[in-house]
Amino acid sequence: MPTLSSSDVPQKASPCVMVIFGASGDLTKRKLLPALANLVQEGLLSQQFAIIGFSFDTMTTEAFRTKLTEEMKEFAPETLGNDLWKWLVERIYYIQGDFNDPAAYQRLKDQIAEVEKNHNTQGNRFHYLAVAPNFFSPIVKKLSEAGLTQEADGHWTRVIVEKPFGHDFASAIQLNKELKEVLAEKQIYRIDHYLGKETVQNVMVFRFANSIIEPLWNRTYIDHVQITAAETVGVEHRGAFYETAGALRDMVPNHLFQLLTLTAMEPPISFEADAVRDKQAEILHAIQMPTPEEVLQNTVRGQYGEGVIENERVPAYRSEPNVAPNSNTETFVALKLKIDNWRWGDVPFYLRTGKRLCHRVTEIAIRFRRTPFTLFRRSPIHDPRTNQLVIHIQPDEGISLRFGAKVPGSVMKLGLVNMDFDYARDFGTSHSTGYERLLYDCMIGDATLFQRADQVEAAWSVIEPIIDVWKALPARGFPNYAAGSWGPGEADDLLERDGRAWRDVLAEEGGAKCPAASAKHS
Ligand code: BG6
Question: Is the pTM of this model over 0.90?
Fold first, then answer.
């Protein structure tokens, strides 16, 4: 077991009430409650804590508690059957109401007052908006009208806003404007659940806590960067939402840009929220805005047809529930971006994400430049592949470094080997949902892992030219990749034109090969 060099024992979160809007939905049972239970387990939640669920469904507090207890059997069974759940469930309350009905907010206000008295939560509260995006602004406005957003006498009030935050540049600006009419920026916590992942947070630690890494982290040593977020699932039950979003909006300005900015940012002067977020924002501002011609050249969109995944036949996107039979929504996107700054000049960043791909993997692959002199050019050991560092975000969390080594024997033969760090092996596994740290940070007032208004707007501004060109020139030839492949063939061409290739995740790790970035699908 490695030694942890961490400094302080973390403080307990402040006393507070958490109000969950949309509490009867998926997020509460899948992520929020299991995460809160883990925080209790770790001793990080205050004893003076309570939850109020607010939702449209008619239910009593008793019924809500029973429902959650039932759901935990599936989503966090380890929390049941001990005092932990008993402790937590006793402090859960429920208010039924329509998000647009002022009377419901009055009931909520009374409930908060009662809970604050019973659990001595000291007037601190945060509202978690686990609702459809069209409710973000109306809820915040109604909360304010009911006097539930003010901060007075040293008590804090915060609001966590889920994604998607707007659907383009203009709507993100508008939403920020509406939220800021009633809230101060420091009260708004825009969540991106990728920032709750240990491996994503580790990108900063890996880069800035290891003196051997940072000197190599620039255009002198790095040839290019590949960021992949591949999913095997389709759109599941979210067809209606996905039809209005598509892979670009759903994954790029948020999750992929988190990975990109953490990989590319300059060292911040501290881990204070604004110091880190300033550096991330700088990267977004440094991304070259593509012209329409560059959009056509440097972006690829795709949509899955039917195919086979894990030996099962799966339907085409156009046959999924709530999807139009002639839909032109993309379920795959690949992009080449350039960051115009001193560190990254001429180093392309290739991003790709898609649904129904052949393998579930999220990773950042850093390809280093070749050695300046190919010493082994005329010998059988010459191998064009270079050093590569892969940060495995999920599912097999870890980091691996590939380098060349002589294969033992009487002839010179080059082998490529990996040096691996494996989270589970080296630190043990945990039941973390990825929301623990985010909820805890909100309760202690640390916004480092949340998005500031300007970051969200900058991210949308980067993809705005792509949205515009794609809208003006609807995709032709969809579906253009078979479910179970690596996406459309054009995604391979994007790198091939630069003399490069996507990392073949499975083959490089000694596994089976998926069909190449797609056999063109008819
Ligand atoms: C969500 C997207 O934000 O992230 C989904 O809306 C996607 O479409 C999901 O499946 C991926 O998250 P994770 O944590 O499973 O990689």
Answer: yes
